[in-house]
Amino acid sequence: MLFDAVGTLIQPHPSAAQTYQQMGKKHGVDLPMEVVRQRFGAAFAKAFADARSAATSHATEYAKWRSVVSEVFADAAAPVDLLFSDLWRHFGQSESWRLYPDAAPVWRQVTAAGYRVGIASNFDERLRCVLSGLPPLDTCDQVFHSSHVGFAKPHPRFFNSVSQLLKLPPHEILLIGDDWRNDVQGASAAGWRSVFLDRTCKEDRSGVIHSLFDLIPLLNLASP
Question: Is the pLDDT at 118 greater than 90, yes or no?
Fold first, then answer.
């Protein structure tokens, strides 16, 4: 059983937009929060639009995130390199992230039930450092991220590579994630099983869960 990371198990704290705004102020750039949100959303979508078709690496992910910072602070007088360096370091620290309230208890319960549990994420090599300060995820030894695998979800080669590393046939792998395209459609196309986690509660379809606690009855586990 594999879990996506960001949006499924962990979230940035403060939020990405808040951190970008605060970091901008630190360097003398005072952008309104709504401007930061809009620019960040557009820049992120642009930078990571090729996940389905292109290979990736640590250098590639690094360059993509630098382009996001450059576009958010496009009209800033402050050197982008300084802003990017601080932001890259910030989001690579476990102190900048927190677990969702349902993450730790469900992780512990499925692990205690005998499931082989891991993480499959479109994060980069900073993920292990982030997880190192977030128990119980700090003891996870099955961590797969896109810059190591060489491809990002929903690319078929991400899923195929993880299957090979796990030495499991695709149909024996279950992925729980919050991104319909990357986690559900990508997994299904690769022959994996998947569960869509919709924390917004906007989706009300069969097979959709709104909390990780909803996994407990799906897996026929006793409630904690």
Answer: yes
Question: In this structure, how many other beta carbons lie within 10 angstroms of the beta carbon of residue 45?
Answer: 10
- For residue 180, the one-letter residue type is W
The count of C-alpha atoms lying within 13 angstroms of the C-alpha of 125, restricted to the half-sphere facing its C-beta, is 10
| Beta-ladder partners of 187 | none
| CA R_g for the chain | 18
State whether the Cα torsion 73-78-80-85 is positive or negative. Answer: negative
Spatial CA neighbour of 185 closest among 29, 47, 51: 51
Question: Rounded to whole angstroms, how far apart are CA atoms 100 and 167?
Answer: 30
Q: 97, 36, 89, 30: which is closest to 65 by C-alpha? A: 89
**Pair 82, 177 in one domain:** no
**Residues, the chain, total?**
224
Q: For residues 219 and 224, what is the distance between their CA atoms, to the nearest angstrom? A: 13
- The yes-or-no verdict on residue 78 having pLDDT over 80 is no
Per-residue pLDDT at 77: 79
Claim to verify: residue 36 and residue 84 sit in the same structural domain: yes
CA distance 24 to 40: 13
210 lies in the same domain as 101: yes
pTM of the model: 0.94
What is the DSSP track for 89-129? HHTTSGGGEEE-TTHHHHHHHHHHTT---EEEES--TTHHH
The 3-state DSSP class for residue 120 equals strand
Average pLDDT, the chain: 94
**ω into 156 cis (within 30 of 0):** no
